[in-house]
Amino acid sequence: MRLLLTNDDGILAQGIECLCLAAEPLGDVTIVAPDREQSATSHSLTLHHPLRPIQRGERRWQVDGTPTDCVMLAIETLMPERPDFVLSGINHGQNMGEDVLYSGTVAAAMEGLALGVPSIAVSFAGGDLRTDVSQLKQQVKVLTPLLAHLTSLPNFPADTLLNVNLPPVPANDVKGVRLTRLGRRVYSTSVAPMRDPWGRQIYWIGGGEITWSGEPDSDFRAIDEGYISVTPLHLDLTHFDVLRGASSWWRDL
User: Fold this and answer.
1) Nearest to 117 by CA among 156, 60, 66, 78
2) Under CATH, to which class is 2-183+216-235 assigned?
């Protein structure tokens, strides 16, 4: 089995090394990842300057672009054969609820899916990598059998990527795996006004407080209870329930 690995935290990130350790027992691993952190780049492509892949070892490339760039380059040019799966992560932080709209980790998996390759995004829901790094390394123990199971499914869901979130607990304390739906999250005080050294007004986006809501089978509830969350996502954003009920709100012009 040929596996393409990428991420949005950069090729030097601890998470992609852990993902590599988890994936190596399953097949031939190729890493094509950004040369720096690309968090929250979503599904952006680099269109206004050329990309320069640099080979950093056998089947290992760094790219001066986005996670989406990396997957496109890998599948279209760098890999001699198409991968059987794209694995993106392990992200340093959760990707649940609306996070998936911003996440470069999830976007890389989406690009694999858009190019016809089954894809899995993996994130670790720890809050501080400096204190959680030992737990992140432990995730290899639970991630290898999970990836082995998902990549060997006889009917991997068509037109679907799987968004995996790992709970911030020691591997031995993981209670199991739950199939989940996206929850809802709201950031408050996420825009911080401040002044630059010359006294000019600037704003910093990020941080803030997070509140979650959702059904009992939501991703954040699984994580809170010590379970691995697996959420199926697809590219079609059509709201079919609204479309089917259009007679109640739509009239022809």
Assistant:
1) 156
2) alpha beta
